[in-house]
Amino acid sequence: MIARLALSTLALLGALTAAQAAPRLILGKLHTATGQTIERGALVIDGERITYVGPLAELEQAGEYPTLDLADVELTPGLIDAAVPAGDGSVEASSEVVPQLKIADALSLSGTVWKHLAQAGVTTVYVTSSPASVIGSQGALIGTGKRPVLLEHPGDVKLTLSNEAWRRGTRNSRPFGDSARMTARRPNTRMGLIWVLREALLNAQRGVDDPASQALGEALAGKHGLRVHARQRHDIETALRLADEFGIQRLVFEEATEAYHTLDLLRGRDVAVIYGPMFIEPLGSRARTGEAEHPCLRTPLMLKQAEIPFCLTAADRINEGLAAQAMWAMRYGLPFADALAAVTATPAKLLGIAEQTGTLERGKRADVIVWSGKPFAATSKPLLVLRAGRAVYRDAEQIEDDDWVDPAGDAAPESPRRKNF
Amino acid sequence: MTRTWLLAIAALSAAPLFGDTVVLSGARILDPGVYDTEGALVIEDGKIKAVLEGKEPKLPYDAKVIDVSGMTIFPGMVLGRTSSGLDRANESQPTTPYLDAYDAIDPSSIRFESFLREGVTTVNVMQGNATAIGGLGRVVRPLGLTVEEMTVRPGSGLILSVSDRPSWDRVRQRAQLRESFAQLHDHLEQVSEKRYAEEQEKAGEKVEVPPAKARELGRKLLRPEDVDSQQRNLYLLVEGRLDAYVYCERAQDVPFAIELAKEQGFLARTTLVLGADCHKAVDLIKTVGRPVLLMPTLVHRETDPLSGDERETFVPRVYADADVPFGLMVNRESSFGERYLWYQAALCVREGVDRETALQAITHVPARILDLEGQVGTLKAGATANVLVLSGDPLDAGSHVEQVLIGGEVVYERSNDVRLERLLEGSEGSGPASEHKPHEGEEELKPDDADTDPGEPKLQTPGEQERGAGEQKQGEQPQPEKPGEHDEHEGGK
Lengths: 421, 493
Description:
The complex is a heterodimer.
Chain A: E1 4-6, H1 9-17, E2 24-31, E3 37-46, E4 49-55, E5 67-69, E6 74-77, E7 79-85, H2 113-119, E8 122-128, E9 140-143, E10 149-151, E11 157-160, H3 164-167, H4 190-206, H5 211-220, E12 226-230, H6 233-245, E13 251-255, H7 263-266, E14 271-275, H8 284-289, H9 299-305, E15 310-312, H10 322-331, H11 336-343, H12 345-351, E16 368-371, E17 382-387, E18 390-394, H13 402-405
Parallel strand pairs in A: 2-5, 2-6, 7-8, 11-12, 12-13, 13-14, 14-15
Antiparallel strand pairs in A: 1-5, 2-3, 3-4, 6-16, 8-9, 9-10, 16-17, 17-18
Chain B: H1 2-14, E1 21-31, E2 35-44, E3 47-53, E4 64-67, E5 72-75, E6 77-82, H2 110-118, E7 120-125, E8 133-136, E9 138-140, H3 147-150, E10 151-153, E11 158-161, H4 170-203, H5 211-221, H6 232-238, E12 244-248, H7 253-264, E13 270-274, H8 282-288, E14 292-294, E15 299-303, E16 310-314, H9 315-321, E17 326-328, H10 341-350, H11 355-360, H12 364-369, E18 387-390, E19 401-406, E20 409-413, H13 418-425, H14 462-474
Parallel strand pairs in B: 1-4, 1-5, 6-7, 11-12, 12-13, 13-14, 14-17
Antiparallel strand pairs in B: 1-2, 2-3, 5-18, 7-9, 8-11, 9-10, 15-16, 18-19, 19-20
Helix pairs in contact in B: 4-5
């Protein structure tokens, strides 16, 4: 499959001089994630935006655009992973309640992980805090690629109800500042965990004047989203009870391994589930928690049938990738259209960025994947991944022409849009 | 009159008994490089009799017909090497050729049930890679109450490793190997002399020959029972009577492995088990002229220490491009995908290996490596009827194993799979978090944060990058970076 370039002389000139300004065309089967599939589709990208999505036959002057025309390719929006965990370096040991801190201040954007994410088709990730904190820091939204960029996002605050937050309490160490009071140490039982949560939420409600309570108060007021890290049924139930007690309107659950046990509780509430990763047997630290012993492979299908909004995440399984999660979900019954939505449109909505990305629609940011075959199939892979119209991954063997793909190259610095700096 | 009776009796005994012939009809029959057709598969006496092509072939009148319309018939997959089914993957001693997997295989192990569910019908169970010279393996089918019932081929070969392992560096490892063979030869010299003397005594002759000559003549008369039981398997190995599986973790190990095998006389029966960056030595590997087994991590990433540039290689592609036949393995302790042979094959197709090669890497090639070519992993006439009925193409993630036949008998049906049902629908119990019990064969996992292979990237916060170095020194949380170092990552568990 060698790229066949169709160029008109006009477009060629255009490409060489104001290359980025010239609209470009990609042909293929389009999966827009709006419920539409367009067989012989055309996608026109102008700068950072998509300017046309539709049948090739209806595109005027199609022959004038520099075109990427590969056999058998299919296009989807760039994938969005809504819950990639930050490493242990983001766990502030001085306190287990740190909603005032920001993950964005901890992340190194110079790792290769962002490149690998882009290679796997994931163009936007939300980095969530580690479950080791009882109330974790505000997350960060990152656009991936060789040059990742920090995107604007208020950052959700996460409550941890799983035992990662209190198992570590058995190795209590004195926090910063000299305080040997019980209230200054980490909880080492579930009782302690719930008490820490209650105390923090009460302080926030009462408007106690310390950074953590202020930040949590802002979250309760809706300025930040609230997430809950919970796997087991009783943890999910407890979270919902706490939400009712403190008047929390909207909760987003992360992992939720046993969500299938609580479908009735979740249904009809303003909740969403970020479900994943899928596994038959947990491994590593997840296995050590002992909370993931009863997975249910049909959970994505069950969530769909219960009409509970959900998206899929690869969490720490970055190498295997988010596309593989969609593949497993489909293997165990989830229809393709729902799997596609669960990794594109739905996480976009959840993160509040649905106006810019998440679907292939005119006017949206050009976050696009060109797949070598049916998306998410084990035998398919991304050949070209675009974020905001520039290539963040290109399969060098299949797609040869550099000029078309990204004239400025991934070398051109993008201005990082940071709100608080 | 008698003659008619005799003929009648002869005719009766020649006719097959009702039920001996089974036909799977109405399916797509797929055997990579052999069949890709619609038709019916005829099984007789537990072996494949024929493939009848066409939509409505004429079926034998007395056959029991199983209608599998719309399904795909595929050979039962073959796993070239795994330590699943053993209670522990490795011995603590470096040289243990006298051990036998026979003594450790647990027929009730859940791994064997999983193999059936996944469509793997032939498994070579052997020790892991953390050894210098390990014990004998055994080829089994994942079915049976005793190891004898399960056995397809006893003594499938010895495992050797020329790479370093925990607490042994490469120098020590190679010295250990040389030492072991030196001890073997010393021993063989002794018993050869003794044997020669024995023969002389029996013959009643007393011909004086120099010791060297005595050893030479005695060596020719040597029988396995003359050799000490601890050395016997090594003796058989150097006599070319046992297969060898030689694990090389890195390209630098390959020349040594080949030299050792050549020197000790077992190169012709060596299967190289190749990890990490061995693909760099593909030209040398090709000269061995034997198929190889690839470790389950199929993507190799390397970072240039100076420029920081990363290079990624899809390993099977290198061997496919060089025309070196390879077999794929699984990693049962890894993430979802690498546990499945079909997924590994699908990855190969994804990265440009042709379908036939990829499918043969999970059927024909491992069968050949296990010396069972034409007997398992294929639908050719005469092969054991180890057959899968799949709901679709084997490389399609949406396909499931609907039925498994071993020796012509249906031994697994998805509709009856209780454990799978629980996985699909979720189980009832959700009590307090249980203490994690290590799965059998699993080494104690080091305390660390991520649920990943050591190779998985982690989101680094700047502090963590430095702390990572510090933690190594602390010794509390060493992060094993090298594949093959811990047995979670050796060829299948």
